[in-house]
Amino acid sequence: MHRLMPIRRLIAPFAVLLTSGLGAQNPAAPAAITPRLDTPQARVIVATLQPRTPSIAKNGHATNRVLIYLDNGVMTRKEGEKATKIEFRRGDVRWRPASGAYIAENISDHPIRILEIDLKGPPAGPAPVSKLDPVTVDSRHYKVEFENEHVRVLRIHYEPHEKGATHEHILNRVVVYLNDQAAAKADDVRMAGAATHAEENASDHAADRIAVELK
Length: 215
What we know:
This protein is 12% helix and 43% strand. The chain is mainly beta. The strands form four sheets. A five-stranded antiparallel β-sheet has the order 1-2-9-4-7, with no helix packed on it. A five-stranded antiparallel β-sheet has the order 10-11-16-13-14. It has a four-stranded antiparallel β-sheet with strand order 3-8-5-6, with no helix packed on it. Strand 5 and strand 6 form a beta hairpin.
């Protein structure tokens, strides 16, 4: 019995070392990726960044993308020696062109979610124009957040029980719902195509959306 004692005494320390070694090999993930949509034109995901956990993109990002922030927060982005601090609120939108290696870090005290619309290719050509473009015929509810050769981003706002003018959508678009609405919940993401219609907010609270038109 006495000869077995040293072996038994070594088991517990060895187990502690093994557990700590496994923990070092499996650190907390800096970001969780949730797929939302995948179409011939774009791939849509939600990236959730944990606080104070750098996310290292060694190969950078090969595609142009639109970022829509789903939470208030602050983060840093470092490319080479250049570091940028980015403050944002829920519903803010940013264009992010393809880039090389970078490190992103959420410096808020809570997780933040970023909806990313990765564009799969260049524009198909000059964007068609409609006489019933919503920004033209219904500027009260449709405003251009920004536009470039790849996308046009629209911010849409209806007060309770407001009805908009008849308008036409020509381009495919990714629609993000910022609050609960009659046919959607907050953070829902949908793909929409060509349509001519008039919209009405039949609810007792405002309706807010972002539409990213894909050229």
